Amino acid sequence: MADDAQTSGYVPRRFHRRPRKVVRVILLSALVLVVTVVGVGGAYASKLQQAFASATLVEKTDILPTYEGQPFKDPGDGSRNILLLGADKSEDGTELDLTATGTTQRSDSMMLVHIPQNRKGIYVMSIMRDTYVQIPDGHGRAKINSAMQFGGVPLLRKTIESMMDVHIDNVAALDFNSFKGLTKAIGGVTVDNPIDWCTDSGKEYCFKKGKEQIEGQRALRWVRERHAFLTGDYQRVKNQQQFIKQVFKKLMSSEVMGNPNKIADVAKQVMPFVTMDNELGDEQVLIGLGMQMTSLRASDIHSFTLPNAGTGQVGAQSVVLNSPEWDRKLGKAMRGDSMETLYKSLPSEFKGD
């Protein structure tokens, strides 16, 4: 019962951070791809350079240090695994320190983005924040997002690596508030809403069943809300996955790709909110990645939730039960560059496409 006692007092809290940080790495990749396809020049290139320079970079060794027993990655393996963290703005506006350990920071959203070696697709795996797992370094079993409290991003990364026996190459963090400016810059996105629902806080935002055009504050509410649903965080994850897909689709549309000024405006909205390790943020890495993915389309983005064994109770807590079998399968597929085959075998309830 010692492990249970560690988590019985857990109350989810939001990241403590400023609102001016970050959009999804998947969107960053899309921007790099768009830049590569369209080409840059003159004043346009200058605007993009200024936009990319506004991103915040941190030393990779500070947030992703090596450790004894870390999963090995073959130097010839050209795939890339990116840990993507998301959170709402904190009430006190405290800045998120990605290098901190033993903090009160917790992630409201966790995704592992896998880019295969052949670059034929992108796999975006959401990890339920209440997934009950073994936290390394003697912390026992707890909800996975509490790893941030016990040891910051380094321990969260170590937890996921130990679950799947897979090496995480890079990390980025994001604030959902950044979606407001992004969606306005691209003229909004259309989502397919499965049910009528309103936000839990005063019902000031309501969404009708069917196709909904969202941007600005409504887009923020779409990706943030979970209390309005009987399935809570499960539905929020599905909404986030659909949002990613539709944003990427809009970025790759002729409306955006055919308008260099709009691309520059999107980059201007996105990059000031980006925080990532300095390897991922290296200009040559980004351009090289974009050049390798020039044939990528929205249909090549596959989103899904890490399969689990349902929900359960640990003490007074409701938790998501982890499935070690699926952890091992996914790790093996990422290491063996066979995610396409594994994705097809996923139970339909965990797919976001």
From TrEMBL:
Which terms are listed as keywords in the entry? Membrane, Transmembrane, Transmembrane helix
Family under the similarity heading: Belongs to the LytR/CpsA/Psr (LCP) family.
- Which organism was this protein described from? Galactobacter caseinivorans
Task: Fetch the NCBIfam families from UniProt.
Answer: lytR_cpsA_psr
Q: Which residues form the Cell envelope-related transcriptional attenuator domain?
A: 106-252
Segments spanning the bilayer are 22-45
Key word Transmembrane helix present in the record? yes
Q: What is the name of this protein?
A: LytR family transcriptional regulator
List the InterPro entries hit by this protein, alphabetically. LytR/CpsA/Psr_CW_biosynth, LytR_CpsA_psr
Is rRNA-binding there in the keyword field? no
